[in-house]
Batch of 4 targets.
Target 1
Amino acid sequence: MCGIAGYRGLARGDGEAVVRRMTGTLTHRGPDHQGTWADPVSGIWLGHARLSILDLSSLGHQPMQSGNGRYVITYNGEIYNFRALKISLEELGHSFRSNSDTEVILTSISQWGLVEAVRRFNGMFAFSLWDRAERTLHLVRDRLGEKPLYYGLAKQTFLFASELKALVAHPDFTPIVDRQSLALYLRFGTVPSPSSIYKGISKLPPGTILSIPDGAKRLPAPYPYWSLSTAVSEGLEKPFSGSTEEATDELERVLKDSVRVRMESDVPLGAFLSGGIDSSTVVALMAAQSPKPIQTFTIGFDVPGYDESGHAQAVAAHLRTDHTEVRLRPEEAIAVIPRLPVLYDEPFADSSQIPTFLVSQLARKKVVVSLSGDGGDELFGGYNHHLIGPSIWNKISWLPLSVRRAAAWSLRVPSPGKWDLLESISAPFLERYGTRGTFGDKFSKIAEVLSMSNSDALYKRLVSNWDQPNEVLVEGMEPDYSVPLPLRTGAISGFTERMMYWDTVTYLPNDILVKLDRASMGVGLESRVPFLDHHVVEFSWRLPLSMKLRVGQSKWILRQVLRRHVPQSLFERPKMGFGIPIGEWLRGELRGWAESLLDPVKMRHEGYFQPEPIQERWKEHLEGKRNWQNQIWVILMFQAWLRKNRDDGLSL
């Protein structure tokens, strides 16, 4: 795992010093070695910061040139099937001087061409490839978006890097906040791909290649080599036809293979373990294939409703792992907050970023690679809204929209007795939001749901923080942001399947994988995600929904796999999530920090937000009238990011 950076353009002054400065901002991603490669005549400058995982010798250093001299690569990631590819290439007459997967990538491209080679790769990756013969620069990103890659034009210079801070280090780049991206951030708590927080800078979409030929006057569009849309279409057209037992066998097989190849490492390896279904399945399949105990890691909080460490300990004991647990005091978690703007590099407001960083920090003390259970919820229907959303919609959709909107209006009027108006639909919705909100929160959310015109609008509301971002912005409007459904099936007919698809193409790469990558790489730890092996993803979409959600239970078939390794009593419990009591902390230990960032005079001067609606919600949150923790945290994370960058001298 590494950090990459580079540019194409005429150097002003010392071009190599510029690429070294860009790469130097990524040393947390690659603390073991930094390298550069340049072709000043062609205007190509490549940089690499290395975290050594495979072939720890200097033969694995990058940027690396292919054996035939045609290609030069700077690469971040792991190709898990590189040994099998290497054998195939050796049978075709190729020889290798290193044991690195980087050399296998270059030789594969030399043998099969870029697109065909990438389709053969099983891994997580983001890389830049300079083709010296065709004088074309290629950027490539993995299928699901595990590894980040930003790019864009600054004046006449084309820039790319693993993180935005490397682009900011280039003298041609002037960072300007994109107001439309800010509106999307307010809604989703993260800036969704392909946008970034900066004007003119994009994220390369997962599963695509961007090829820039010599003399290109403008940037071409990225083109796909794999897409979830195609995987979904093919899965729905050719569903798994075997029995439940056969489906469980096949799921266990593909998951076991995925875990096995991700255990390939020349450095110490372990796993995050929360005690939930996903992480427990990963650890169980690791233990089944390892001759020695797996190292597992969890953190605990002495806060009721947020601590899963006891469950993790029970699973670890059953699987006989070498388990490390640390119980954290609130002040230790709060101490991470000042580091978040640097770690996440653009505004990011999933508060579970804090425990994710802390468990990564814990694991890095003993291992360099850690497997994670992320992705299971998206593929197997594990989020509460996968169960509750359809239940709500089925109960209200028969009513005319005018009637539902009138009922919504009545719920917003605090009159005793009116709360019983829609008692029959309230229970599943209240369950969706648990017990952490106030009474007013829950019925206000019911009122919002009643106003939705269709099920897709309901999903958007369920995943939104600020539902009306334009009311908070000083200028700029929220752009239309929609994800097309697979075309070969016309559309995914079921509401639950649509939500699972949207979660996988939006929430997973824009939130979950960003959180995991920045938290782990912030401490020089490589994180691997077995559920996101494309063979697992493709098989999951062949399974009928009835094998994922059954009798009100999520991830049903995944539970059947786990039951073969862990007693059901150790993992059957309500979903908790990897959270922290951020709402309580904002009323307590974090209040002073928050009020400094929410100062209305400063906010008005900064020119991004209207302070009045924010102050209104802040006041209601402090008084306990409403729980606005998500909306407030979104604002705070932007404000903290903005002020940190201004303190560093950026004119944002």
Note: DSSP finds 27 helices and 17 strands in the chain.
Target 2
Amino acid sequence: MKSSGIILGICAVLLMGAMEPIEAGEAAMACPLSSHARSKIVNSVSDFFYEGVYVAEATRIAPDPDPFQSVIHTAFASVLPEIGGIVGELNLVKACTSAIDYDAYCEDAYIPNLNLNFCIRSGCEAKGIYTTLVYWTTPPLTSPDQRASLEYSVAHPDRTVTYDPNPHVLWRIDSTVPGFEFVTGTIQNHVKLSVAGEKPLRLSHSGVISIIKDNKNTHISSLALHSTFPALVRSQDAVVVDIRADESQGSGSINMGNRKLATIEIHPENIPDLLTIVWNDACAGAQNSPQFVPAPRLRRLSAHTNMIVTEGLQ
């Protein structure tokens, strides 16, 4: 492991938590997912979607024959259920020329009443390929290799979120094709949500988001997201979410086995409210109206070395 001046600064942003999507009505008995489960699926998928869009749009890599003259801005993001998360940018002083991992950087997440750190470890997978691992820990743990359970509680109503082990998300930026950046985010979360008076909701899920971007004008050419929730309903098929989009339109679906539970629509012109969810059949309830899933509100923080200064709400 090598410590380096590769990180000139870190601009970290605290996501104050995506708004709960507007429910389309209570589901009929035939729907395999409870209203609560539907809501949390939408939250998890939309958070990952907006994280990927942010990382792609904020990343800018302009290589130079002299690696010290390159302009390298890579981005990262990670959201925790019920409390929000972080997004930010890394300004690198040197282009990736070979494989290396740099020392991890950790800060207090500054979330009221919770003792949590967020950490990042940047590195190079190979020439032209940049990685940022983002993870959450409880002090004094700081290393990404120190995997341990992480639990926190929030009020109104009383809810407890348990990760076992603590959550990681890996962002990978491939700049080896001239004129384009290939952004990939990967998650594998083992998580349970407990609400007072209800059975725990097993929200464990895996996911991959892949985005192709023109690096001259930050224009996203295509996006694909795939996420699987294997244990939401006992003795049932996994819930699978797929989204595909290009520069003008996009769509997706939420499925359980051969049954399509919901349709996802993407409207690039409606920034920041890009996503709508339309639940089908019994899962739609009486009103059968779409759920509008807005982008999270942001509070920007700036971090340099070991200091974080609040700059206010965006």
Note: The radius of gyration is 20 Å.
Target 3
Amino acid sequence: MIARIEEKFRRIITEKLQQFGGGEEYFSALDAELTKTNNFDIVSLLFEYPASNVVVSGRFGNFIARVHSLGGFRFDSLLVFNGGLRKGDAPILQHGYRLKMHSEPVAYTFFDDSFYMGRTALAIDKVLRSTYNGYIRNIRVAYDGSPEKRENVSSIFRYHN
């Protein structure tokens, strides 16, 4: 079953690479594909392992928040930031589900559709550290296109092996 879902995702990746050849349009097209309800099975693979404190952003993050609000994914806390962070927009918390201030720093898992340079995660990590007494410990993405493998990033598909 998992192999079938991974193959489905590989077909989408191949199609979008042929269509766009990479770059911003490619990553936006992947994001659009992963937020379609008929691709929910791919996104579900990201949540095979539980995460209690979750942070997301953009269109993909709003999709995860909708699924969470319908009871599809369960988290102790969920922070949803705006999109456009990889383009330099300032991170703004749009929704905080069960957001509490803690005396000890809180480790979050950042979920996203794709990862390349890590700008989105870095921007959110800075805000978590400065405003919410938290930090990003792990990053889980559907597509990892970064040239070098990072220890705290896990993915369904990694472009560079």
Note: The two ends are 23 Å apart (CA to CA).
Target 4
Amino acid sequence: MSTSPERDRRGLQVVIGGPPTPDADRGPSEEADRYRRDDMAAPSNEARRRRVWWLAGVSALIIVAVAGWIVGQGVQSSDQAASRAAPPEASWITATVEQRVLSQTVISRGDVRPQVSVDVVAPTSVEGEAVVTNIGVNVGDEAVEGTRLVEISGRPVFVMAGEVPVYRTLKPGMSGADVSQLQQALTRLGYTPDIDGKFGQATKDAVTAFYAAAGYTPALTSDTVDADLATAQQALTEAQSALDDAEDALVKFTATGFSPELVAAQVELDAANRGVVDTTAGSNSAIYIAQLEVNVAVNTNNRVLGDPEATQNDVDQATVGLAQANAALEQARRDGASQIATARERVTVAEAGVAAAETTSDTNAATRARGNALAAREGATAALATLIATSGPTVAQGEIVFSPTLPARVQTAATTLGPTAAAPAAGDSGATATSALVTLAGGSLVVSMTARTGEQDLVRVSMPVEVLDEQTNIRYPATISEIAASAVTGTDGQLGYPMVLTPDSPMPAELAGANVRVTITAASTQSESLVVPVAAVSSAPDGSTRVSVLRADAVEPVDVPVVAGLSADGFVAVESVNPEGLEVGDRVVVGR
């Protein structure tokens, strides 16, 4: 039997065929120690091999399981396939009846802006490119009445208090509400114009003094005002001289009396006028007598026709007499008209004679010359007065801007001299391009927003709203103060109705320019009511409304008549027609 050593299952070395044979040069104790060292080292190597095989086996099992699951997913029986293809069993879709306050709200966005904003641009008195030549105010300054805001190409721009917007250059001779507004502002500043709404001499003097106090001269109505006034004055002087000469000539000719030709012509004209009067009177008399004859003939004819004993000869004579009387009346009328026309023609000829005689009369020529000279003098006087009234200092459009509220805060302003390409916004150190050289913000802050088409019927003036500053989460109660009467197209291309919201209390100044959330409660149930989704309410052919309630453990719902109320946010307030027909927590059908 072999004596080579083997190891048992625990890694211990055993001798097959007999006990171990110790080495010749080793004692029994050394051999035993060697066996113990081998027994201690052998289990470590074997354990590692067993772990490797165990991990490999587990991995193989996982791979086989996954592969089997995948194959199983793709392999199914025909019954399984039919079961999966069939639609699921229909079931009721329900919602819970709630009790709460239902509000119909409009939620939108708005921009906080000053109640009054005034933009200052280059005045019309500036010729060519507008250039900032002097800076009057800076961002954040407070502008009071009379403040010079900026100087453009040497022309000043002032601010005054007033509601009427500037729309024209104010010139001497003009009148209107804008002129009255200017006069009132000048009066508040210490000047003395007439407050009558007419740009007269007193207003010209006040404007000139106001500009002079600021170191400027107001623009004139024309560059040739002085020359035009001198020309008009010269024309008046010449007209007065001509009138003086004509009056001297008339005095000389009057001393010699009137000419015989003119006297005779005047006598003939007087006679002709008397002839018209006499002829008219004679014609009227002849017509009157003829009318009396007609009346007699009518009476005679009526008497004969009414006499039963009258013969035919009597009737014929009465008829002939009436016809003759009518003919005589018509002839009198024709003769009178002809005679009057002849008399009037005589007057016309006489008037021509007087006119001819006057042309040969030195006295009358002098009279006419004096009249013409007087008319020329009066025309020259009126022309000079008109020129004086409409000439002189003006307020060029844009040199005085009016703000409804003062003082006003300077929101934007030019910061550098030169071409007016830009003006920085408040709080912006850079030059943000804007068309306004200076922008004034006055009054309290308001919120501008737009009601979308369809929402305008839900809002009205004086309706309360809530403004939310989402940066600070502060809410500001406000009121709708303005709603546009017609829709306009916004910058986003959508139609809407511009609105203005006025806060109930002043908003902080730092909110100017902020975009805020606006909530408008258009309608409310006021108190808690039963509400269900809109989809749960249906109408019957008779116009009544109902909801379908699915009771606990019930398979089919039952209809419950209700009265629908306010609808908002996908819900509708309902009230059961029958007492206890609907309660909080009931399940109403909204679909299947």
Note: The first strand starts at residue 5 and ends at 7.
